[in-house]
Amino acid sequence: MRKVVAFFIILIICVACDTQTVWSETKSLGVWDKDNPVTFSIPQLDSLKSYHMFINIRNTNEYPFNNLFLVADIEFPHGKTITDTLEYKMAYPNGEWMGEGIGSLKESKLWFKENIRFTEEGNYNITITQAVRNNGEVDGVSQLPGISDVGISIEEATQTP
After folding, report:
1. Domain count, the chain
2. b/e for 2-28, b at 16 or more Cβ within 10 A?
3. Is position 161 within any domain?
4. Gap between the terminal Cα atoms of the chain
5. What's the predicted TM-score (pTM) here?
6. In angstroms, rounded to a whole number, what is the distance separating the alpha carbons of residues 11 and 4?
7. Domain range holding 84?
8. What does the pLDDT look like over 14-51, one tens digit per residue?
9. 79 in a domain, yes or no?
């Protein structure tokens, strides 16, 4: 009987694990200050493999916008930096949140980089800053409510036949 129970536990663990995800980290926020970026340090990954990178956002009903603007910097181990300005839709036109989840907390897995390689030896640093602005205003929203967590996940790119 123990062998049967152990088999089912191992089977559940194997099915529940996302084998494509090679690295992931999430940081919790209260209110996202525009002058307080979120930084992640990615450990060295296999330089011969390609990866997809995602930004993971958890938002609540307190988030007052239907889109999200981010500035993402990737700092390479040898000093080079690439900066991207990104816009993501967070809600449908009817106001319903696009993310996954039940209740007021929704999680969105947003494409960031596709088929990238980490060819330099060492850690890569990713810094994400919110860059949301109210219509007609030059200055950004200084205290952005409703974003509870920000994360990065990296998945091994799979070859499609």
Report:
1. 1
2. eeeeeeeeeeeeeeeeeeeebeeebee
3. no
4. 42
5. 0.84
6. 10
7. 20-156
8. 444 546 899 999 999 989 999 999 999 999 999 999 99
9. yes
